[in-house]
């Protein structure tokens, strides 16, 4: 996975497992040019590499461009792991709350063993501005995405995030870290926005910037987001290319 390629140290057991898997493979798929370059730099790769996005099912994930609601609705639907850094997003939203800015935020329900770590946000969490959700089916996630205005991900490492592509397919304004993999997807001010990785204050500034955008600018960015996914993250097209490549690999191996 992209996170492991980006984050695993060369002397760790996990690194050795990844290297072994690569050596025993005839084909490895990555979903991002940056991740592919990192894999080639860090590992001994002798097999074929493909670069297909895992993508968004555009028959399911779609929505219309619309103005930002009042109060704005903000979704962070990443898991509660150290990599995804949901607490970083909460810290930024807490700053908005302390400034008296109205909004409504949605997160996946954190696991019980992490509830204690959220004590610093008690005032925000009891304000009625934050709602925790159970895991949602694709259909339910589409409905949730189409009820919000802004998608935020605090993750410090990624490939081409499927949840990001799904949000863009639904024409959301997206705000993600400036990790090199994200910069392969997001052109700032064109189809979304980025913040300085690991900095909650930059998420805060990014959200303020988005809330100050003109309606015409918002709709242009929303449409560009959808257009990007249609061209570069359409699961119907990507899965077909992947299946054809796997078929070709099988045929080639049988011919040897």
Shape: globular
Low-confidence stretches: none
C-alpha Rg (nearest Å): 20 Å
Described by its quaternary structure, the protein is single chain
Please provide the ordered H/E string of secondary-structure elements. HHEHEEHEHEHEHEHEHHH
Question: What structural class should be given to the helix and strand makeup?
Answer: alpha/beta
Query: Major sheet: order of its strands?
Result: 5-4-3-6-7-8
Nearest-integer average pLDDT: 93
Strand percentage, roughly?
Answer: 5-15%
Number of strands: 8
Distance, first to last CA: 30 Å
Helix proportion range: 40-55%
- Summed up, the helix count is 11
**Main beta sheet strand tally, sense and closure:** 6 strands, parallel
Provide a compact summary of the structure.
The protein is α/β, with parallel strands linked by helices and 256 residues long. It has helices spanning 2-7, 13-23, 33-42, 86-98, 122-125, 138-145, 162-169, 180-183, 200-211, 215-232, 235-255, and strands at residues 27-30, 48-51, 73-76, 104-108, 130-133, 150-153, 173-177, 193-195.
């Amino acid at each position: 996975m992209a996170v492991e390629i980006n984050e695993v140290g060369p002397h760790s057991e996990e690194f050795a497992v990844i290297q072994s898997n690569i050596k025993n493979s005839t084909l490895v798929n990555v979903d991002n040019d940056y991740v592919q370059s990192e894999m080639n730099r860090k590992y001994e790769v002798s097999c074929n590499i493909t670069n297909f996005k895992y993508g968004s099912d555009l028959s399911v994930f779609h929505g219309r461009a619309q103005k930002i609601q009042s109060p704005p609705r903000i979704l962070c639907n990443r898991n509660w792991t150290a990599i995804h850094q949901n607490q970083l997003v909460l810290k930024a939203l807490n700053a908005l709350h302390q400034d008296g800015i109205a909004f409504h935020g949605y997160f996946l329900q954190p696991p019980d063993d992490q509830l204690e770590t959220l004590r610093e946000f008690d005032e925000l969490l009891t304000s009625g501005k934050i709602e925790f959700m159970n895991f949602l089916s694709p259909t339910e996630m589409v409905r949730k995405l189409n009820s919000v205005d802004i998608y935020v991900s605090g993750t410090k490492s990624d490939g081409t995030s499927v949840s990001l592509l799904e949000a863009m397919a639904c024409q959301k304004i997206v705000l993600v870290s400036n990790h090199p993999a994200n910069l392969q997807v997001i052109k700032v001010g064109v189809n979304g926005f980025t913040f300085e990785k690991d900095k909650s204050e930059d998420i805060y500034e990014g959200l303020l910037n988005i809330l100050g955008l003109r309606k015409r600018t918002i709709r242009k960015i929303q449409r560009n987001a959808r257009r990007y996914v249609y061209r570069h993250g359409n699961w119907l097209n990507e899965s077909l290319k992947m299946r054809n490549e796997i078929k070709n690999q099988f045929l080639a191996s049988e011919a040897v």
